[in-house]
C-alpha cells in the first residue's frame, strides 16, 4: 500500500507528466515557408495584366524565375509583385505571432494611380519544413498550404495602396483540406486592412505573421488521461480508497 507521502508524489508527478507532454509536443518550434504572389485581375479602370519577365520572382516550386501575371501597367505606371523565398521562422509560445512578410510590391518611380483600383492579387503559401518533424519525418518539398486573396485600392494623393482582403486572412494547418501528417499546428496570418506607403525605393511588403498553435489531439489526450482520474478530485478519491478512508 502506498503511503500518504508516496501517493502525493505520484499525483504530482502524474500531473506534471501530462502537462509536460502537452507543452512539449503541442507546438512547433520553427517553420519554413515560401510564397508566390500574382495578380488575378486587372480591375475595370484600364490597367493591363501581364508578365514582367523578372527572373528573380518566386515560383510555385520555390525557385527563382519568371512568373506569369506578376505585373500591372496603367498609363506608364507599373506595379510588380513577387513572393518570399524560403524563409525559416523561429516561433515563440503557442499563439504568440512572429512578424513575417508574404511578398513585396515594386512600383516604378513610387507612383500610385487610381487605374489600379479594383485589381486583385493572390498570395499562395507553401510550407517546406517544420521543427519538430511530423510523423514520417517530412512535410514534403513545397507543400501547398493555401491562398489568401485581396483587392487593391489606391490613393494617389498620399502615394498609398490599401489591400482589402476578400476572404479569410488566416490559414491554420492541419485542416480538412491539408495533407495527412502535417503537424505541428501552425497559423499563417496576413495583416488585415493594410495601407502601405510606397517607399523611396518604390517597394513595400505584404505584412503578416506565423504562430504555433496547440495540437488538439495531444492536448485532448493529456487532459483525457488526467480527466479520466477525475482531475485532482479523482486522485484524492483514489488516495482515500487506498488508504482505507471512507
Biggest sheet statistics = 7 strands, antiparallel
Number of strands: 15
Q: C-alpha Rg, in Å?
A: 25 Å
Query: How many separate domains make up the residues?
Result: 2
Average pLDDT for all residues: 74
Q: What is the distance, rounded to the nearest whole angstrom, between the alpha carbons of the first and last residues?
A: 16 Å
Strand ordering within the main sheet:
2-5-6-8-15-13-12
Overview of this protein structure:
Helix content is 19%, strand content 39%. A 7-stranded antiparallel β-sheet has the order 2-5-6-8-15-13-12, with no helix packed on it. The chain is built from 3 helices and 15 strands. The chain is elongated and about 55 Å long. The protein folds into 2 domains: 188 residues, no CATH class; 31 residues, no CATH class. By secondary structure, it is of the alpha+beta class.
List the helices and strands and how they pair.
Layout: H1 4-25, E1 30-41, E2 48-50, E3 57-58, E4 64-65, E5 71-74, E6 77-82, E7 87-90, E8 98-107, E9 120-131, E10 143-155, E11 160-165, E12 170-173, E13 186-190, E14 194-197, E15 203-212, H2 216-228, H3 231-242
Antiparallel strand pairs: 1-7, 1-9, 2-5, 3-4, 5-6, 6-8, 8-15, 9-10, 10-11, 11-14, 12-13, 13-15
